[in-house]
Amino acid sequence: MIPREVLQNIRRIQITTSRMVMDVFAGQYQSVFKGKGMEFDEVREYLPGDEIRSIDWNVTARTGHPFVKKYVEERELTVVLMLDKSPSSHFGTARQLKTQRAAELSAVLAFSAIRNNDRVGFMAFTDTVEQFVPPRKGVRHVLRVIREALYFSSTRQGHGYRAGT
Predict the structure, then answer these.
(1) pTM of the entire predicted model
(2) Do 161 and 151 contact (CB within 8 A), yes or no?
(3) Tens digits of per-residue pLDDT, 31-84?
(4) Among residues 122, 121, 112, which one has the least CA distance to residue 83?
(5) How far, in Å, CA of 21 to CA of 17, rounded?
(6) Distance between CA 8 and CA 4 in Å, rounded?
(7) What does residue 80 show for φ and ψ, rounded to 5 degrees?
(8) Taking the domains of the chain in order of start, what are their residue ranges?
(9) Who contacts 108 (Cβ-Cβ below 8 Å, separation ≥6)?
(10) Ramachandran area for residue 63 (φ above 0: left; ψ -120 to 50: alpha; else beta)
(11) CA dihedral defined by 81, 12, 85, 76, rounded to 10 degrees?
(12) Radius of gyration over alpha carbons of the chain, in Å?
């Protein structure tokens, strides 16, 4: 059972980040890739400079004017949030630790990703990978990712990454 204060903290983060995710600049990306395997969007009149290979000959024959097919490629992304949980990340101001700020930023990114139907995963690391949560979709999964980002603590005694080891 998850303690009540943990659930309240996760809920607070969910509420505060939902406004950021709904912002005009959040999400809404389209793929720039062109090619086969794309989803048909619409047919529009041919404009000078359009690719000749994209002409829809059936519509062109019916109407007497050249028309081209327009496609949209949908891509589902996989987002893996990676947080440094070494002892060097346990400092900050009087108001908030660095690890708490990183967890809140992770929450914004995670909610933005699921709003775009992307999968979200989580990795906590020190000098090695400490925990990995495989990417999945859904609000429940994102709430689990946020909980792990907030409350995972390393059992290792190291001081983070050491070069040459």
Answers:
(1) 0.58
(2) no
(3) 545 444 567 788 999 999 888 888 999 999 999 999 999 887 667 788 999 988
(4) 122
(5) 6
(6) 6
(7) -115, 115
(8) 4-28+75-151, 39-72
(9) 17, 20, 21
(10) alpha
(11) -10
(12) 23
